[in-house]
## 1
Amino acid sequence: MFLTAALTIGGAVLLGLAARRDEKPPLQILGGLALVGSAALLHLTGPQPILYSLGYASAELGAGLLIMAGMLAGRKEGARSFFLLGVGAMAIGVVIIVARSIYMPQVTLLVELGPDDTFDEIAPLVAYYDGVAERAFPMVDLTENEDLAQVYLIRLPKDCRDALKKFLELDTENVDNVEANIAMGLDLPETQELDYEARAEVLENDPLVGSQWGLDAIHAHEAHALLADLEPVRKASIAIVDTGVDAGHEDMTAIFEDSPGSTDRHGHGTHCAGIAGAATNNGLGVASLNWEGRFVSIRSYSALGDNGMGTLESIAEALIEAAEAGADVISMSLGGQSPIIPKTMVDAVNYARSKGSIIIVAAGNSNVDASNNIPSNVEGVIAVGAVNERLAKAPFSNTTGRLSRPISAPGTNILSLKPTGGYVRLSGTSMATPMVSGLAGVMRALNPDLEADEIYEILRDTGRSTGASSAVGQMIDAEAAIQAVLNDA
């Protein structure tokens, strides 16, 4: 932009000098036109977006015409025309530039620098494309993870994204990875009519427990009979990475741990939290595997907004924060589609696993192969599919047969908490996931030394074979899994 402005103004000065002379020198005129033409050619052929180029070209031309008008001010002929043309061109340029800055959507890129590089090395290029940068994961330093510590979030106009991404990818000396900060979030299926006959007698005193078919399916009542006489080695923490959690709900207050996402204007995170760990046998609401609230606590990290959507960066950041806080289990009922697994998500998962966290992720609700569903397709996570009341694959559930750690749980018409009080049924692999997370949390509470891979192996080996096992993995059996942990203790 500086070069084109200099060429345009230089050309205008030459043309203005020529116009002041009675005999117009052709070489001076040609030189001025050549400079202005060169500036126009650079705008047309340069890497900048068309609106960007048009706005600045018009503003530069306007400035040049105003300079010519000033040089001809002593002469009546020509000065007024150049002045009016200059004002018009300048106004058009300013309008285009301002309108673009207001109405052009902003997008974000995730840029990972090499461990020995600094942002200053790419700052001029980022600024050239109107980009603004910040560290994506400031809570991670180079001594902890040299990849995540070097990731920057760059916000820039949408029409500049492809060009900047191209030039950053060419800068292999300073840049290790560039990827779009893709949108991720929720995609809940509709809840259908419940196909289930409630149990008449149950062990728990929660008033709605008889309507929780999923607890019957996973042998939760039998698991409660085991847990009633046990004390955990220590309470395990389950981090809900979602829309937040209503920490003030009657079935949540006793087991919620201080954490950033203590409110929920959407409802999804609160529902998932109740499935994972609602206080059980407390005479209120629903039950989970968390007998009397003694085995797990709930933490919340808001990766998604009030509309249920987030980004690769916001989800990775919440995952990292949960791991940094020492979460035993990180439950992620969210996702997005991508044929290429983003390196940022892989790095975040590996970082959380290195901190000892067990990561359990929804397989997705599109009734397709989950191989392209992130983050359930990231190596190291437990991917959860859903079964219905007949223990068949839920019609919406993605299949997980090609993933390395598939498991399944009830995911249709699951009753749980809603914000500001009350209870509601929802369906989705989103609901199956915290059911698995709750069981993993209880297992970790009984034996804190269990590693993530050991947890998965127990879930798989003790799981129930159903008609859906080949599509979504074995269905968890809470009683059998807990008994296996006790037998190995």
Note: The first helix runs from residue 2 to 20.
## 2
Amino acid sequence: MHQNNLPIIIYRARDNHEFTDFAFVCGNTRFQVHKVIICSQSKVFHKACTGPYKESTTNEIDLSEFSVDHVKWLIDFLYTGAYLIPEDSDLDDHIYMFAMGDMYNIEPLAEYAAWKFRCELSDVEMLEEVLALIPLIYNSTPDHRHELREELVKFLRSPSPGIKAEMKTRGWYDEMAAECPEFIKDLLFSYLELSDDWSFLSHLQNVTGTQKHTIRIREQVDDSICDARVKQYTGWLDVGNQHLFFWYFESKTAPKTDPLVLWLTGGPGGSSMLGLLQELGPCLINEHGNGTVHNPYGWNENANYIFVDQPASVGFSYLDDGEPIPSNSFVAAESMHKFLQLFVSQVFPDLAKRPFHISGESYGGHYIPVLGATIVAQNSLYPKRPQVNLESVLIGNGYVSPLDTHFGYWETLCTTNPGVDKPIFNSTRCDSMAANLPRCLDLARVCYEHPDHAICGAAGKVCWDGVISWYDGESGTGGNRNRFDITRPCESGDDLCYKQAGLIEKYLNTQKVFDALGVPSAVTNYSIYAMDVEVAFSLGYDQEISTQSQILYLLDHDIDVLMYQGNLDLACNTAGNLRWSNSMPWKGQPEYVAQRQRSWGAGGDEFGWYKEVKIKMGETDKKTTFAFVTVDGAGHMVPQDKPKEGLELVNRWLKKRTFNK
């Protein structure tokens, strides 16, 4: 079984019950499941399946204390990492899902349910609804689980104007003191513990008339901090307890009609200001790190472009004290989707009907497919909520399939296929890598199937020692090699390898920039890379999975997909990305695999090669495009290495969706 097919096979197996070997029983309803899926995520289920209990012989467990819907959503989470409930559902559902996560020792489920509860609690407009939740939470969660209890306290400490008025006219304190005295105690203690920041947040919330979302935006009326030569806006959108920083630039050509494009730098943990000021923004950092210069090849030539630091705690974005750092692409996508809904419905409503595209690079190969799939699903599930008009995604040197990226190391370093005169490695190193690669891939597949720290740690060590470290161990802090461009040395002595990164960090930390942006006191220092986010994503196994299935989902829903590659990159190499794209099981696969590589360029110059398929995927007459395009002489960051070619690439995609002459 090819590892890239695994997420798709699991998704389909859940629906058609292939190879199931266990069952969840809820009243008269049986749900067939797979032990390998449920036991790898729950110690309780693992013991039930393997210990001296009746469940290990009957191969079923009774979950009848929960509703059929709750059990169904539990299964959805175990198979996909998320659950979706109907728009008209009650907050009670998230409380029960939290309780299930705690009861069955599925901590990611508890965290996810708490996050969903927090987001939707802020939409409640009647005090009666909130009061009904209090005894339910205190009766269904153990004393050591404070998450939902604290959210109730925070909500009633800084209520919306409507609820605040109700609180003044009702004797609800006495009523709740009799029914749930523990809540009253927690509420009283909170007045001793909460910092002055809450009064500031409360003020913002009252000004905007909503507790859940606030908007802080300012126009940069001149080009003093970014020589963009177009209108530009900066600010923060507060999505619950997450505060996402953005920098928005109007199109150079037709801002009132051009599409909106989002840029996400990878990492995980990389600030999108790297993409803005080092690669494709309308301004770039100057050589001294004390200002910017205009970029004639900025990608906002025919598009309104927005750069967002995400997930929260990256760059200028931040979390409220005590908030957990997002630990996977799915949680990050939920927040970004809400951000986009706000941005096109409240901040710039004239953008609501425009075509929308997501672009990015590197770990954007995880961020972008998951965010795109979230948008498509949410648009369909909640048609009355603000719609994000997604048309396509553009992924540059994307980290989509870890296993295929590992596989591509040999071809990138041991052949001339990347466009080098001779292989980077000699035959001795190449023979050693080739000998070690099969075991690396075998163990990595086991990690895919059993995401356990011990298993994945062992797989990571084998792949590092036998394949990756031959080059990466001599890159960045480990030596002079540059894994983002195999023909260039590492310039900075750190893992980013480009001196511009340090200059950007230095510049954005100046008082001039802080004052111009209106950086809040919660942000004391700008960092171009958030290591704590990388660690959180690693612990959440996000870096171990493939997002090929999300790309397939986008194609199935008529979203065009562009994969573009700088051929000199090793970190997210062309060989690996071509491998998973060839293996993707979709309607256009036969044509895509059979298609030869054709050259593309402009003005008589060849820029690289491409493969593209246009095919009807749905019931409409629209043909969906999947394109794989390379740029010769470019590394990991195509817009920086080949600015003219990069601009031609993005303009051609946004205007025509084809690289065919």
Note: Residues 192-211 have pLDDT under 50 and may be disordered.
## 3
Amino acid sequence: MSSLSIIVIMWSVVLIAGVAYAAPPGVKDLPSVDQLPTVAELPNPFVFNDGSPVRTRDDWTRRRQELLAAILYYQYGHLPPAPPSIAAREVSSKSIEALGAVEKEIVLSMADGRIEITVFLTIPAGKGPFPAIIRGDVCWKRLSEPIVANIIKRGYMLADFDRTQVAPDKNDRSRGIYVVYPEYDCAALAAWAWGFHRVVDYLHTRADVDKARIVATGHSRGGKAVLLAGATDQRIALTVPNNSGCGGAGCYRFQAKGSEDIAAILKNFPFWFHPRFRDFIGRVDRLPFDQHSLKALVAPRALLTTEALGDLWANPEGTQQTYLAAKEVFDFLGAGDRIGIYFREGKHEHNEADFNVLLDFADKVLFGRTVERRFDQLAFPDSPRAYSWKAPRPQASN
């Protein structure tokens, strides 16, 4: 875990809907929604802001920074840096004989205790190091014993935590990350992504963790947060959002019947997003990105989206659209086999079948193991693609 110095800075605050959002240090203003061009299809990620094309993989590194800057500025707000230090305290440790595992409760304390994250580690027997799966949905519920048993049987460690310890799941900026970092304008999804990063920090201090094989997953709003976490932390080897929909792995420009759109999500959960995002209600064609752009930020690391065909609100057909568009970037980077999508029958939940798919994909991309399951089968093969561009053939860098 790297340490960061604390710098005293001057910062400004804007009041939007009675809530204070700071202007983060070093962030330049981007064009207002009225100044942005209209783009009906999924925007081409291979074109720089100035209109010049991406030709080389070095070009993509620079273009990636442009996309990240826009996504954070308009949609999620900016993530604070890592704290200077994190203190880990083991609260309990017990053997789970039925699983052949040990469960530890660890409290991560930072910023003089103003932020604390409780992590429940379930560790397979043996010395390791073990690949680790991070999940931030303890605020919803702990995983069922069959799911945990399968994770352990497959040789993975589970690190389960409650993301709402970092920031509450309501319109309240009076505690947690917002008090510790008032100079940052992160909304809740960005705050929760920051929480995933802190668990990665901790796992990197453990000798029994395979640091090159860290997986992060989450469901629904937790899936939205985990996709952003994976896009903004290169230490996460595999990112797996489940049924994450609008604001996650879904699509703003392609709305299948019955799916949640930007107006609906901002009516119900405005605090998940930066207030600037409201400017795009009814004007999503002015967004300089769509969610394929966020997925592309994960490349060339691995990305799997798991979807339920009965979960229309999460826009599975739109998720297929952004999967295909993001795959163009993965292909450009020579990582086309590191992005996958999987559709199952059923409803909005994170179930045993979803975790079986996750573990199979992790075995494939992290260990090179042969698995029978395919991760490229489209549930909507007749759906017209929502973009006309293609990945260029990468040229050699100068």
Note: The radius of gyration is 20 Å.
